[in-house]
């Protein structure tokens, strides 16, 4: 890190510098996850004998902290270690997708596409365009983490801007704006199912639409784009240009040279292959009896084969065009070159695999201990006991969810825990489940980008290290804190204004419980 004249530092600079320095003094992320796992074991043993008097709404039984240091639990840890690692959700997603992306990248297909993109995208609109694409990527489950975030760095670097700023902007859109999207996705019916079950505790006749927050999440996407655009261009990138010098020797990214005739031909042939594949997928999935739909004919549900095939489709979507581009352009001479590209992409992920091993073990241990679940229930019950006015309680839900999100990453797991408390409580105050769910979704998004417990957080650190080798957890957290804090405040205010103006939250939604009944 280069030295900065402290006389020119603002309070924000000094605060973020302190966060970065403190965070980067932590051990390597892999060792940090190991330490956190051991700490969780010890804490679980200390808390296990205590009766906290909480009922787990998912099972209806007493919620107890599980002692992970018993002989039974340690034996289970050893016998399940391999399975916990290989079933760690981000691991397969990242490695399979990167196999395809590696071919598209090393063949030159992605580089050519970026050059075309930058040739007609105004510099002033580069940031909002990237953030918008990041938000839309939610539709394809976790694809944004392995595609859009690294491409954010590549695009910014190719445009002569700081690559970490591009990664930060994309991360803000993909994860910080998780609940902002104008395209429905599988998360909508998943969250709605828990909300409806919680609402039926008070009124068994309540029936909510899966898209009951669609209008709000659609308009929220514009809020996220505006916040990320301003912060990236006016706060984050100027600071990074002073504190994070790009290690040019490490960077394997495109420059802005002109594309030759052979490359142009190869790009358009490869693009034609990609488009043909997408059209084939569309016509295959379009019929209501398509094998890619679930038994009910839905195509966006989490149980639909299409949604469960997103990662293999990403692999093919990049592998085939990359293959074609490589041979047409002459960058590939034989299939061995293709395999070498895939091997090279896997080699760059070796550090991530090591981190993922310890991260998987820690997250599994933390979930089994019930420490996060207990924290969520205690916080929800405390907020309920305060008996605050509806508007204040809504804000409290946003802030509590944002805090709990630092400990419990899964959106559905958190909502399964706290929806049976919040939804009935606010229904008795005349506030509809639709509004309560909207408040939860705001809080569930904004703190994703500052918690190392996010399964993809180590991956984003690895992406940053491709440009600035010294990047650590502290660097990434210090970069993302402004996004998290500003989104928390602005998005909450936006929800309150939205509520005050009476704009519909989504299909068949309402603000008042009496209107739902």
UniProtKB/TrEMBL annotation:
GTP-binding: is it a keyword of this entry? no
Lineage: superkingdom: Bacteria
GO terms in the biological process aspect are: p-aminobenzoyl-glutamate transmembrane transport
| Coiled-coil zones | none
User: What is a single molecular function from GO for this protein?
Assistant: secondary active p-aminobenzoyl-glutamate transmembrane transporter activity
Q: Does the keyword Transmembrane apply?
A: yes
Keyword set for this entry?
A: Membrane, Transmembrane, Transmembrane helix
Segments crossing the lipid bilayer: 30-50, 84-104, 116-137, 143-160, 167-187, 214-232, 266-286, 306-328, 349-368, 388-408, 415-433, 445-464, 476-501
According to UniProt, the name of this protein is: Aminobenzoyl-glutamate transporter
Q: Which organism is it from?
A: Anditalea andensis
């Amino acid at each position: 890190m280069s030295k900065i004249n402290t006389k020119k530092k603002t309070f924000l600079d000094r605060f973020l510098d302190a966060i970065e320095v403190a965070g980067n003094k932590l051990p390597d992320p892999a060792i940090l996850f190991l330490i956190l796992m051991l700490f969780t074991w010890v804490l679980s043993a200390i808390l296990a004998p205590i009766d906290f008097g909480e009922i787990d709404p998912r099972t209806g039984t007493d919620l107890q902290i599980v002692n992970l240091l018993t002989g039974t639990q340690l034996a289970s840890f050893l016998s399940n270690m391999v399975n916990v690692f290989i079933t760690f959700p981000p691991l397969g997603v990242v490695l399979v997708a990167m196999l395809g992306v590696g071919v598209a990248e090393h063949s030159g297909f992605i580089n050519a596409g970026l050059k075309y993109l930058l040739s007609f995208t105004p510099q002033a609109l580069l940031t909002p365009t990237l953030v918008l694409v990041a938000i839309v990527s939610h539709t394809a489950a976790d694809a944004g983490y392995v595609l859009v975030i690294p491409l954010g760095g590549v695009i910014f670097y190719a445009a002569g801007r700081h690559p970490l700023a591009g990664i930060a902007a994309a991360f803000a859109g993909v994860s910080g704006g998780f609940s902002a999207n104008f395209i429905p996705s599988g998360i909508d019916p998943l969250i709605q199912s828990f909300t409806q079950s919680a609402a039926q505790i008070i009124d068994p006749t309540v029936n909510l639409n899966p898209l009951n927050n669609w209008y709000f999440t659609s308009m929220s996407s514009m809020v996220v784009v505006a916040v990320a655009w301003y912060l990236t261009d006016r706060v984050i990138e100027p600071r990074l240009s002073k504190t994070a010098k790009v290690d040019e020797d490490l960077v394997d990214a495109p420059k802005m040279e002109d594309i030759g005739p052979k490359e142009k031909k190869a790009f358009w042939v490869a693009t034609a292959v990609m488009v043909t594949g997408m059209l084939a997928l569309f016509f295959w999935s379009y019929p209501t009896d398509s094998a890619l739909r679930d038994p009910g004919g839905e195509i966006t549900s989490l149980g639909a084969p299409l949604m469960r095939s997103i990662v293999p489709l990403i692999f093919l979507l990049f592998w085939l065009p990359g293959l074609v581009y490589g041979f047409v352009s002459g960058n590939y001479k034989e299939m061995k070159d293709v395999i070498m590209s895939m091997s090279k992409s896997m080699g760059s992920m070796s550090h991530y695999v090591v981190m993922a091993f310890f991260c998987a073990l820690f997250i599994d241990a933390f979930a089994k201990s019930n420490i996060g679940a207990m924290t969520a229930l205690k916080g929800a019950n405390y907020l309920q006991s305060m008996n605050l006015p509806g508007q204040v309680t809504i804000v409290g839900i946003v802030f509590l969810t944002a805090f709990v999100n630092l400990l419990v990453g899964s959106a559905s797991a958190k909502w399964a825990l706290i929806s049976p408390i919040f939804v009935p409580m606010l229904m008795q105050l005349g506030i509809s489940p639709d509004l309560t769910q909207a408040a939860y979704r705001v809080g569930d998004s904004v703190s994703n980008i500052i918690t190392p417990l996010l399964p993809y957080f180590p991956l984003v650190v690895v992406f940053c290290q491709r440009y600035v080798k010294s990047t650590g957890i502290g660097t990434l957290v210090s970069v993302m804190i402004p996004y998290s804090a500003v989104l928390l405040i602005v998005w909450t205010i936006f929800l309150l204004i939205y509520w005050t103006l009476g704009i519909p939250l989504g299909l068949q939604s309402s603000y008042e419980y009496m209107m739902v009944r």
